[in-house]
Amino acid sequence: MLEIIGAFCLILLGGVIGSIRVIEQGDQAIVQRLGRYERTLNPGPNVVIPFLDTVLVETVREQLLDIDPQRAFTKDNVPIEVDAIVSWQILDLQKAYYAVEDLQESLKQIVISTLRNEIGLLTLEQLFSSSAAINKALLRELDQSTANWGVKVIRVEVQEFQISQALRESLEKERAAKAEKAAELTRTQGTVESIQQLAQALQGQMNAEDVLRYLVAKDYVSASMEIGKSDNSKIVFMDPRALSEAVTELMGQVEEPRNRGNLDGEA
């Protein structure tokens, strides 16, 4: 008789212990009774019915979803890879558990789809300065899509846009060519301005021949200085008389059409 009473007490004690479930702070739990939703358990001790109730614990803390690099195409059909991080939190565990089958995978697919759509609206040049706008578009789309899922998307951050090495080198060459073109234009404008300033200073005392002679001599000196800077350069001496003769010949070619025009005018 005592053995039966002892066994009964042990079963009763086990049932009491098994009926108490402690939920940790930052977690909640779904109680399913015979396969159907019964209630949601909050942090602290909770009583359930052993063998009838199934307890499913989930965190309600803020969570991070790391999106692996995804391939997308810009408006000008440039292939890139982009990754992102989503910060989200469960607000209603019942909705989050029953409204969607795989919550994280569903969030991931929305992010990927929205990323590709937004990137497809921008050129490559626009893309690198549009991270903030893309983040806002992602957050807006996620808020709308998850409104009935019992979750809150806190923030979305696009991490990095990656392009192929060959394309990166091509863009670097293009930027270098543009920079060189701009520098050449600046040098040309500087030369024009210096000639204008020189002409204004002399106030008509220098004619076209003098200006041309000055420019040729200036380029000659600049070229000589550049040659002298090179470690492997050879020293080349030019006869000043040959330089003067070259200038005279060039000036003759300049003056000939002008003289012909004057003769035609007199005729």
Order of helices and strands: HEEEEEEEHHHHEHHH
Topology-level CATH name of the largest domain: Tetrahydropterin Synthase, Chain A
End-to-end separation in angstroms reads 149 Å
Instruction: Indicate the CATH architecture of the largest domain.
Output: 2-Layer Sandwich
Characterize the main sheet: 3 strands, antiparallel
Q: How many distinct folded domains?
A: 3
Please describe the structure with a list of short key phrases separated by commas or semicolons.
3 domains, three-stranded antiparallel beta sheet, 55% helix, single chain, Tetrahydropterin Synthase, Chain A, 267 residues, alpha+beta
Can you walk me through this structure?
55% of the residues lie in helices and 24% in strands. A hairpin with a 5-residue loop joins strand 6 (63-73) and strand 7 (79-90). It is of the alpha+beta class and 267 residues long. The longest helix is centred in the C-terminal third of the chain and has 38 residues, at 165-202. The protein has three domains: 2-59, no CATH class; 63-163, Tetrahydropterin Synthase, Chain A (2-Layer Sandwich); 207-266, no CATH class. The strands form three sheets. The chain has a three-stranded antiparallel sheet. Strands 6-7-8 form a three-stranded antiparallel sheet. A two-stranded antiparallel sheet has the order 1-4. Helix 3 packs across helix 5 and helix 7 (208-229) packs antiparallel against helix 8 (240-266).
